[in-house]
Description:
1 helix, single chain, alpha+beta, Immunoglobulin-like, 210 residues, globular
Amino acid sequence: MISSAITARRAAMSVLVVIAVLGSGIAANATTKAKAKPKPVCNLVKDAKGDAEDGQLASNEDSSLDIVSADVATNAKQITAVIRVAKLANPDSLSPLGNYYSFGFTGSSLQVGHTMYVQIEPTGVVWQGGAGTGVLDTVHNEIRMTLPLSYFGTGAAAVVPGPPLHGFIATADWENPAEPVPSTLAVWGDTAQSNATYAPGTLSCVAVGK
């Protein structure tokens, strides 16, 4: 009788231990899920490869002007736009006068349109008329452009804080030496647009300022 009682007590204690272990596992799993980081926003703008020059000169297409995707991201002080192309070359032998890349968006409480751009010229690189900075990343085929948020204004004109950014337009084209605009209206290059939105400060695959 005593032996049976001890055995039963041990069995009951084993069950309790198993329940406790399972319970702690469920709690830990729930905590892990609760702490899971949100997925970063990426590829706000998407575009097919091989459609630069309207896809009409595929045999001699400039891969440096063939947009495949683009993104934008902000933090408390800066905004960075990224344009990705099929294969970035610097210098670009197919464009002896240089290339022009821009990223347009609408933002702020005033819903004003803005453009971030870079001019790649034979004499050097000009980032937003000297106001911006950036990186021509030939390893990752990215053109990264950064500006201080103050560049776009303050108050109602401020991009951050504000409503979601939208109306994205990425452009890659030959450089116009006379002024910072595409020289051929993307006849030789590529343009990609998107109806996506980006809430300022949202986690992104873009490293702001880098």
